[in-house]
Amino acid sequence: FRLPDNSVVTLNAGSALTYSKRTWKNERSLSLTGEAFFEVQKGSNFEVNTKLGIVEVLGTSFNVRAYDDQLAVACKTGKVRVTGIDNSKRIIIPGQKVMTASGAELTEPAQIELSQIDSWISGVMEFESTPLKEVFKELERQFNKKIEVEAEWLEQERYNGYFDRNDLKGTLDEMSISMGF
Questions:
Q1: How far apart are alpha carbons 87 and 150 in whole angstroms?
Q2: Are 117 and 63 in contact (CB under 8 A)?
Q3: CA quadruple 125, 53, 144, 139: dihedral positive or negative?
Q4: With the CA atoms of 109, 113, 115 and 119 taken in that order, what torsion angle do they form, in degrees rounded to the nearest 10?
Q5: pTM to 2 decimals?
């Protein structure tokens, strides 16, 4: 989507973005549920509000993921300030990511590969030591399917890899081979 100031927002599956066209010129503020990648034009402050925190930007590109009770913000270019609902604040630069869950304090900035920040836009979802429970949740969101796991121990296993958002069968086949289920 192109915003009134020519900033560009790409939304991921199961995501929603709202803003006021009436006040946009004076206040570049919007609300996000889900995940979006932003390419923000320079100008006045730009704010992304989620239920777990606020992301403030000055002409940059970044990713915000705010599903359920988790918030993750990664900076691709420029600089981003993240304020959690507990008022913890972190400033991140390109190649850094901060997270919070259930309103806990924001993590310290961690390194992330620049290519991972917006790989979902091209249809690739990457996971690094991610609990399978979270991977299955993402597969459900991307493919609009329900996944039932009968072996509870399996949900605690961690997954390293990626999947193509256009190939559910191939993704499940690859996971079952690599994870042994």
A1: 39
A2: yes
A3: positive
A4: -60
A5: 0.84
